[in-house]
Amino acid sequence: MYPTQGRPHRRRLALATALLLGAGLAAAAPAGVASANQGADAGGAPRKVVSAYFADWDVYGRGYYVKDIPADKINVIQYAFGVPTYDASTGTPGCGILDPWADYQQPYTSDISVDGVADDSADPNQHLYGSFNQLRKLKAAHPGLKVEISLGGWTDSTYLSTISKTAALRQAFVSACLNTFIAGNLPGDSWPPSAGGPGAAAGLFDGIDLDWEYPTSVGGGNVNVGPEDRHNATLLAAEFRRQLDQLGAKNHAHYLLTAAMPAAKNSTNYYELRQFVQSLDWANIMTYDFNVPGGTVSGPDTLFTGDPRDPNGSDWTWNTTGTVAWYLANGVPRDKIVVGVPFYGNQYIRSDGLYRPFDNTGLDPNSLQPDQMPQPTYHSLVDVANLVGHNGYTSSWDLLAGEPYLTNKAAVHNLATGTVTVPTTIVYSDPRSIGERTLLIKALGLRGAMAWELSQDSDSHALISALNPVLH
């Protein structure tokens, strides 16, 4: 138990709630903005949301498969990622598969299958394999579970600026995405020979999650960006909504449309918040990565409330509660707000405490070893390295930010460049800090929570379990 549990924790939550109420809950559903809950039961959109990403590469790294997803604790899965494409020679946008083998080609043996039944690569009538087929089985076992395809992400938003420039491009792009992922028309000519083809993934995806990171910004490699992206993003969302509703009327279904959206005041540099969100069922706000290993001090990846020691602490929105207040004040209805949480943290070596200088030379973002990770997962901290309160690490609590952190004055790191023994600080999320979000969501009547990402949770599903009360 942390020494700061109890009344200080409750006071901080009360203060955060008061801040948000003062930011304009009464104005959170302005005229002309429909509530996300209107017609939700008839349409099939969940009134409360615990959504979590499952990344296609999870099957490689941790060996985390769809069967490992705690589907009884969530009601939406966001599959990362689908890839927006653009053929410059023909001026044609497309919507592609990130990893065909992991997504729909890999035959599963019985031991890693959701239902214990192996795939048969010689069966000419089986057209779906890989994680897509396993997700279909998971949905069959858990009625009401929704699966979305997430488009873009930090490294694959490359062409979203280009394909949003004109009405014709937007229409063609959206049509391509619905053809691939909603109609389920996957590329064929693969191994197994029967994999893919027309309608192979039909009925798998219940909607689209837009992960444009970010309009107007080069981000992780975007091209052809410009200030017009901000309004074009609104138009793109409207086109998705139009075509999804058109298809839904034909199929007697409601298809979800959501988006991953940035935190803090600078979110309005990228999006016309109120107008953009009008087209969505809800907005997944990425209230994390406030501090990253590319920064200047050993700061929390996510903050629940503001800490003046943070490099951006003078910005009252530079934390979860401040960001929610900002979205509310900018006309985003509270029942369209989904609060994002990270299932990973930041590791700072050669750092003797919180908000201190660091030198991460030697850490490797591609490593699977906890002592080499700049951003270790909760799974690696708890299940692999057992660092939380053990092996020389002291657990502490940042009372102002409402986040846990670990310190070790002489941590041993076996780096590729050699073994070093240095002071180390690790900031991360734990069930208590996740629980703060759950209480806030319930207190304010927000839509729910979103997590990046499922394979990073502990073997006991401690973090997603701390979010599950949102659904009750």
Automatic annotation (TrEMBL):
Carries keyword ATP-binding? no
Where does the record place the GH18 domain? 48-472
The record lists the catalysed reaction(s) as: Random endo-hydrolysis of N-acetyl-beta-D-glucosaminide (1->4)-beta-linkages in chitin and chitodextrins
Q: Which UniProt keywords apply?
A: Glycosidase, Hydrolase, Signal
- This enzyme's EC code(s): 3.2.1.14
From what superkingdom does this record's organism come? Bacteria
Where does the signal peptide begin and end?
1-28
Q: Gene3D superfamilies attached here?
A: Glycosidases (3.20.20.80)
Q: Which InterPro entries match?
A: Chitinase_II/V-like_cat, GH, Glyco_hydro18_cat, Glyco_hydro_18_chit_AS, Glycosyl_Hydrlase_18, TAT_signal
Entry similarity comment: Belongs to the glycosyl hydrolase 18 family.
List the PANTHER family hit by this protein, alphabetically. Answer: CHITINASE, CHITINASE 12-RELATED
Its recorded name reads: chitinase
The beginning of the lineage is: Bacteria, Bacillati, Actinomycetota, Actinomycetes, Micromonosporales
